[in-house]
Amino acid sequence: MDKLSITFEGKTYNVEKGMSIKEFIDEYVKDVNHEYLLAFVDNKLCELSKKLKRNGKLELVSRNSIMGFDTYRRSLTLLMVKAFADVLETKRDYAVHVMYSMGTGYYCKLLNKKEEVKLEKPGDELIAKVKQRMLDIVSEDMRIYKMSISVEDAITRFEKQGRLDKANLFRYRRASRVNIYNLDGYEDYFYGYMVYSAGYLTCFDLFTYDEGFILMAPDKKDYTVIPEFKPQKKLFEVLKTSDDWGRMLDVDSVGQLNNSITTGDIKELMLAQEALQEKQIADIAEMIKNDGRKIVLIAGPSSSGKTTFSHRLSVQLRAHGLRPYPLELDNYFVDRDFTPRDEDGNYDFECIEAMDLNLFNTDVKRLLNGEEIEIPTFNFTIGVKEYKGKRLKLNKGDVLVAEGIHALNPLMTKEIPDESKFRIYISALTQINIDEHNRIPTTDGRLIRRIVRDARTRGNDAQKTISMWPSVRRGEEKYIFPFQEEADVMFNSALIHELSVIKQFAEPLLFAVPRDSFEYYEAKRLLKFLDYFVGLDTTDIPKNSILREFVGGGCFGHN
User: Fold this and answer.
1) Phi/psi at 435 (nearest 5 deg)?
2) Where in the chain is the domain with CATH 3.10.20.30?
3) What is the largest CA-CA distance in the chain?
4) What is the mean pLDDT of the chain?
5) Residue 1 binned pLDDT confidence (cut-offs 50, 70, 90)
6) What is the full DSSP assignment across 396-415?
7) Which of 537, 551, 541, 4 is nearest to 277 (CA)?
8) Which of 93, 413, 483, 523 could join 513 via S-S bond, C-beta 3.0 to 4.6 A?
9) Which tens digits make up the pLDDT trace of 31-75?
10) Res 117 pLDDT > 60
């Protein structure tokens, strides 16, 4: 038998050619707790069933990593829909729809497969049976097999099963083959890799919620613990509204979006989507006027479209007889000598302590009391606030509009009375799914937005933007997401058609990421993701669209 030299953690092993990565782990790593879910072989991501065929370097991907966590949740979804198929074997007209993320899990619904309407709310008894079936499959450690079949075969298979969302998706696939996963006879397609077997999925929970149910994955840092489920009611309502929009426009999956583009119906859909957003912005402006609030606070994660939203809200405020004045939070940083440092010794500009809270609160209180103030301008080159004679006084009908990552943090406006504040949380909450079991992660949409915008406005290549993204995400989870439920209203800036538009701008940037770089896998994953979408040009995108903030050509200074 031929031998191979495999380097793992600095040590070289002579192994049998054709040994799977799983067999290597069992023999040399002794991973009894199934900590490792995937592997890199010479920088190429592989599932554990992959056979070693040449000399190379092996790196294992733990479930505590971002890739590992995503793989665990994806595999858990397959386990759940398989268990539903077993428990509801005699009922063929249902479909499990994975709707959106809730904490570490997913909110799901049972829908009528033919009519695409909600079935009766699943009761605790049904969910308990499905959960027990999941536990049985895990205890039996059933293998998850992957097979490659032709696209034509995949379309035929899923059409026969009545799963038209998947069949529709594959009609626009450029590749000639597709990978299908099989768990004990249940076949499904998933965007991304799977764990080796069901025995890896030992930690999860399943329980009813609202009109559906929640599939909970373990904590990202401790896969033996299910975190407490804390309902985010305002966010949940926004997500449900966005889902209703998609259904109202008859586009709730990528296949339906592609159909709309190829049949020429997309222009009307785009205008309807923009009109829905404009109506919501107008409604927010009316709320601000009716409530008599004097300061509007806008916060949201990276690439959520805060700048364009602020401009469009200001236009609507003027239309309602108010005069908006921007108050940029970036001008209220503490001087550089007082900026906190992170654990690596670098300046931490994202923490709340980097803001001059006392000065901001003092200035806003004086404005609300009818006094005139001089507004600082922060000089980022030398790291100090400067005063250049810019003065402001609020008169009747004037409204301050402040936008920044800490705008909803109570500490930012701790001395400002609540009755003076109107708080808005904005994010890009994707409204369509790839298909019924494959979500489009909100973070993917925002990352692609940022890659395109940073290349156009800051000269950053995709590799740099991707490398910074984990740090951006950590800042969001620490400083933005905990305060989103503080908002008076939430606004979803995502557009159903935006990924079809933005792919033309993103793909050349992603193709340029070096193959030998750490960021290459993420670039490759995003390219595969964008390949699902039929392209769409920018011709019919309104000049004031939030999408213009990223692709350019807008009327609010977007080059």
Assistant:
1) -155, -170
2) 3-62
3) 87
4) 91
5) low
6) TTEEEEEESTTTT-GGGGTT
7) 541
8) 523
9) 888 999 999 999 889 999 999 999 999 999 999 998 999 999 999
10) no
**Cα 358 to Cα 363: distance, rounded to the nearest angstrom:** 9
The answer to whether the CB of 521 falls within 8 A of the CB of 515 is no
Alpha-carbon distance of 364 to 410, in angstroms, equals 14
Q: Which tens digits make up the pLDDT trace of 318-356? A: 999 999 998 889 899 999 999 998 887 888 888 899 999
Determine contact, residues 546/429, Cβ cutoff 8 Å. no
321 CA to centre of own chain: 36
Q: What does pTM read for this prediction? A: 0.89
Helix extents (H) in 377-497: 442-457, 462-479
Calculate the CA dihedral of residues 21, 199, 194, 437 and round it to 10 degrees.
170
Residue 430, Cβ density class (10 Å: 0-12 exposed, 13-18 middle, ≥19 buried): buried
Taking the C-alpha atoms of residue 462 and residue 526, their distance in angstroms, rounded to an integer, is: 11
Give 245-551's CATH code, choosing from 3.30.420.250, 2.40.128.20, 3.10.450.50, 3.40.50.300.
3.40.50.300
Spatial distance between the Cα atoms of 118 and 125, rounded to a whole number of angstroms: 18
- 263-285 pLDDT, tens digit per residue, is 988 999 999 999 999 999 999 99
Which burial class, exposed, middle or buried, applies to 2 when counting CB atoms under 10 A from its CB (0-12, 13-18, 19+)? exposed
Chain region(s) in the chain for CATH 3.40.50.300: 245-551
- Count CB neighbours of 53 within 10 A: 12
Classify domain 68-230 at the CATH class level.
alpha beta
Dist CA 399 CA 443 (whole Å): 32
What is the SS3 assignment for 385? Answer: strand
How many other C-beta atoms can be found within 10 angstroms of the C-beta atom of residue 553?
12
Cβ–Cβ < 8 Å for 427, 300? yes
Fold type of domain 3-62: Ubiquitin-like (UB roll) (3.10.20)
Domain with CATH 3.30.980.10 in the chain: 68-230
Strands 323-326 and 398-403, bridge-based pairing: parallel
